[in-house]
Write a structure and sequence with these properties.
The chain is α/β, with parallel strands linked by helices. Helix content is about 15%, strand content about 25%.
Length: about 260
């Protein structure tokens, strides 16, 4: 379940993330944002108050309890997480409240999948971050994030699925198309929706033929299945930044 996955990422640490997880009752709902880069807009758009301000076309999915960001992050020259300020645009201020380094997650970087197979000093690290968010329209709130600096498909095949991870939300935004240093389109994410019990897929619908066949050869558990999930549209919004692409929100209906 989701707790099994989170405990596996925590390892034997007894720090801030362990305290958060042990204090949480039940199974935490996880929103996974592959190829997140430095984008934390999912914390805003999946806030319950945002849903009140932007009613959906159909019944909404319950919001997540914790956010999981993955990106192998190959860029050596970046000030990402070098200071406590994550974002400050005059409307939204996001800062680090607590940060804890979790056990390393050393996963393959296959040159057929990624543009920079050497990665960077960040690649392989896993962080637990508690963020403070001050937003003009949403008020003040805190959100926990796990950031794993890993390649998305390897993380799914070698961490999420073996640990029976349940992911309530998947954000397929930026993945592929040269936005994240990867050669795959992210289309493989459509194949694992039912395996991870995904309830909501948020997508920019930007799919193209990429390195998916390589991914399927490396990780057969990510291959297409004979009974794809069906989608029920919830809403569409302009996801700010990264060309302000139209973002489609869909309730996942298991086949």
């Amino acid at each position: 379940m989701s707790r099994e996955l989170l405990l596996a990422l925590n390892g034997n640490r007894r720090g801030a993330f362990y305290n958060w997880l042990t204090a949480f009752e039940g199974e935490p709902r996880i929103a996974w944002y592959p190829s997140a880069g430095e984008d934390f807009r999912d914390l805003l758009y999946l806030n319950p108050k945002y849903r009140e301000l932007h009613p959906g076309l159909s019944e909404d999915v319950r919001p997540p309890d914790i956010f999981l960001h993955t990106d192998y992050y190959p860029w050596e020259h970046s000030n990402f997480l070098d200071s406590k300020t994550i974002r400050d645009d005059g409307r939204t201020y996001i800062s680090v409240d607590t940060i804890e380094e979790l056990p390393m997650c050393n996963l393959p970087l296959d040159e057929r999948i990624v543009d920079f197979p050497k990665g960077s000093q960040a690649t392989g690290k896993v962080l637990f971050i508690l963020l403070n968010i001050h937003c003009n329209s949403l008020g003040f709130f805190k959100r926990p994030v796990i950031y794993a600096f890993v390649e998305n498909s390897a993380f799914c095949a070698k961490r999420i699925l073996p640990n029976h991870g349940k992911i309530s939300h998947i954000i397929k935004h930026r993945s592929g198309g040269g936005y994240s240093g990867g050669k795959a389109s992210g289309e493989w994410l459509l194949n694992i929706l039912q395996q991870v019990n995904c309830e909501c897929l948020i997508t920019d619908n930007h799919y193209f033929y990429g390195a998916e066949e390589v991914i399927y050869d490396l990780y057969p558990s990510l291959r297409p299945n004979s009974s794809p999930a069906q989608m029920l549209p919830i809403r569409e919004i302009q996801w700010e930044g990264y060309n302000s692409r139209l973002s489609s929100w869909n309730r996942v209906i298991p086949s």
